[in-house]
């Protein structure tokens, strides 16, 4: 035989050539897709910052701008539905930029054969969620695809918010010593969705934590402007949110397992199903990095707000191990909390 | 038998209870869905205006805001693809409000198994289209659904534009006597897509007219600010655009069939397939209502622009037959041009 030796590639090619569910996880595969397929062609300095929202300067105003498509399954679940999720999810991405939500667009992709009553219930829920924030749904679009080419109902919402004077939030502002605050127990949304899908019954009323965080954020910013950055740990859970901040800020993060609130039924379901609450999605929680001097005031403000009643100080940014998130267990050991490569629970939002 | 007599409903219930393809047509069923299912719950005065874009006053600036989801089939076609369509389509909705396009968001819903090379080609096309306008894609989102729950690739784009001082466009400004200008031949996009789907070969190079109209609009507004309103006749074609304006302005519209430019191959394909070019989609054309005194200057400005070279005066707004669009044929007869109830060509954009 002549010619060069042919090597075969040990990496499963399928995962590189074709879209897999993990590309929608918000984890490593999502990041890879963004880096390899979108950023090189869109070439936007603002997009390259990879914040949950773009902050745009228009006529002297700083506007936050963010988009999300919702493909959650099932459409209705305890604690929420695709409609409330679509409104609150985008409002929360605006709020994580410190912005006051103003306006939403709503784009619907409907599957032929969808019961219009289902659409009506989702629209009613969107209207109710928007009223309670308040935010105004000012423009929309509806497309229909043939039966078998969609899955009932997908909703895109895109939001515009106004960033108040003096508010500046960015992972780039995080410094070693900053405190990590979490607004409440993690994993409720993911486990509620999973329970709904799998027909698991809980003895208590575990529900999605789906809620708009703009009020909580306003209360926190009123307590101190020394908040560095915030994230709502949705897809990929608390772990992904912390890893993203650590990587972008160039700091290490150390968190205390015993300080992280997790409901008993979420902990139980996770043990039963082999899940780690750190990776399970939330839809009404936030994690904030706050200057050491301001941490107590911000934590108190959170606890005074209905959505931050169980807020906790869970850790610290450090100058050691930059880019890594470490978890200290109650036994005194430490482990690295990495981002998941793919998906733990597909179609969670 | 006692009790009241039970009547059965003569309207086919299926079309009222379930989503059909016609609900995505931009015609009567779309309007019905909007009126019955969305507007009552969203209760937004801005949305209720039903313009192609919302115009928002934020900090003294007037911003246009618009959203569109793209589900076109096939994804690539002569003259464009889902990527260029997604950028140009939203830019055109901004431009129809007189706005200079500034920023876009991009939301992707991918079907598991999609060839990543297809996504890359679409993203590259989006980047190229955005560069040429120019507009910046500043924020995005990617979701993945299981194989068989989507159709390869759906894209939502939402845009923000700035409406210049002095520009005010609205159907409410249309007056009897206003001239109706059309920027060029109609039906190219719809017939190009249909040809691609059905494997029809044309002797010439018929292609989609997919193009960004913001430059043409800027040239028109530079010629005169006495433009009343503009629409890009996409889904539902020229007929739907004129009917919408007539209804919202409370005027009649009379157009001359012989004045409406239609390419020979589009006319031929329409005759062969039993389609009416007035209902076929365009993606790079606009229709404008202009004050009589300004019409000539605006038409000249259009003709000097590459995308308005074949612009024509096609009709007039009238005080008679308010809400109706009448077509005068070359034989001197007149017929009503109504909106289609449902869909002539599904998934055209």
β-strand number of chain A: 14
Shape of chain A: globular
Gyration radius of chain A (Cα, Å) is 21 Å
**Proportion of residues in extended strands of chain A:** 15-25%
Major beta sheet summary of chain A: 7 strands, mixed
Strand order across the largest sheet of chain A: 9-11-8-12-10-13-14
Q: What is the CATH architecture term of the largest domain in chain A?
A: Alpha-Beta Complex
Quaternary form: homodimer
User: What is the end-to-end distance of chain A?
Assistant: 54 Å
Count of individual helical segments of chain A: 10
Structural class given helices, strands, pairing of chain A? Answer: alpha+beta
Here the CATH topology of the largest domain in chain A equals: Phosphoribosyl-aminoimidazole Synthetase, Chain A, domain 2
What do the pLDDT scores of chain A average to?
93
The most extensive interface between chains reads: A-B, 82 and 82 residues
Topology overview:
2 copies of one chain form a homodimer.
Chain A (H helix, E strand, L loop, with lengths): L13 H4 L10 H15 L2 H4 L5 E5 L2 E10 L5 E2 L2 E2 H14 L4 E12 L4 H17 L3 E10 L7 E10 L16 E4 L5 H11 L15 H10 L3 E5 L5 H13 L2 E5 L7 H10 L13 E4 L4 H10 L7 E7 L6 E4 L5 E3 L13
Parallel strand pairs in A: 5-6, 10-13
Antiparallel strand pairs in A: 1-2, 2-7, 3-4, 5-7, 8-11, 8-12, 9-11, 10-12, 13-14
Helix pairs in contact in A: 4-5, 7-10
